[in-house]
Amino acid sequence: MENSFNQLINFIQEKTGFMCQLYKERPLKRRLRVRMRALQLNKYDEYYDFLRKNPNEFKELVRVLTINLSYFFRNPETFEFLQQNVFPEFKDRSRVIFWSAGCAGGEEPYSLAILAEQAGILSKVQIYGTDIDEEALGRARKGIYNSNALQYLSSELIMRYFESEREQFAIKEYIKSRVTFLHHDLFQLPPFPHCDLIVCRNVLIYLDRKAQRRILVNFNEQLKPTGYLVLGKVELLLGIPEMKLFDAVNRAEHIYRKLGTGT
């Protein structure tokens, strides 16, 4: 069974570039089985044969492997801390760069844009949202959401930042225009300027320690001196040497600041 599993993940990596071997085995297998059950397949070698004969299945598989359910202002306490303690630092800067890494359907980077508007710095902010799921990026670029994604927003905020379209809500253009969405693998440095703030929540939890360390080094390199890093509240990265590159600003909300005066 292990040989067929290894054959499968090597094939997936070869065809999609998705680095299966860097992910924890248990959640990886769980997500593979989602697609296998949908296709009524029981064995890894059966799914391997199916992928060989049906290359369109790779699109569905990558979607399942990268799915990250989200909504606007998820974990409101995190955004409240950013609004009160971090964003005021950006008011005196001529240009501010945010990166939402693993942005899924765009709820997080648009939340950052709304927060920037409330802080009076939207005109100087450029936000990049990246993911490896092209389907999710397509949804993010459209900027249209159902009411469930807006569950933590008051009716006042919904009216202020969204246009109602039947039973859906479209992010207003002046917010949408501040966000650029790109296909990007976190194991590589991104093709945009160094960042004042990187938000990467509930992504590292699925990776093994080697992959976590590699991505943290990339984040450190991509941040401006004393730039901020926000991780997921469930991501406990204790014992990882690369966390010493950052100083904890708020441990409860997993908000960190780059140490030193590097790039």
From TrEMBL:
Pfam families: CheR, CheR_N. Its EC number is 2.1.1.80. One of its GO terms (molecular function) is protein-glutamate O-methyltransferase activity. This is protein-glutamate O-methyltransferase. It comes from candidate division WOR-3 bacterium 4484_100. InterPro entries: Bact_Chemotaxis_MeTrfase, CheR_C, CheR_MeTrfase, CheR_N, CheR_N_sf, SAM-dependent_MTases_sf. Signal peptide: none annotated. One of its GO terms (biological process) is methylation. PROSITE patterns: CHER. Gene3D superfamilies: Chemotaxis receptor methyltransferase CheR, N-terminal domain, Vaccinia Virus protein VP39. The lineage of its organism: Bacteria, Bacteria division WOR-3. Residues 1-259 form the CheR-type methyltransferase domain. It catalyses: L-glutamyl-[protein] + S-adenosyl-L-methionine = [protein]-L-glutamate 5-O-methyl ester + S-adenosyl-L-homocysteine. Keywords: Methyltransferase, S-adenosyl-L-methionine, Transferase.
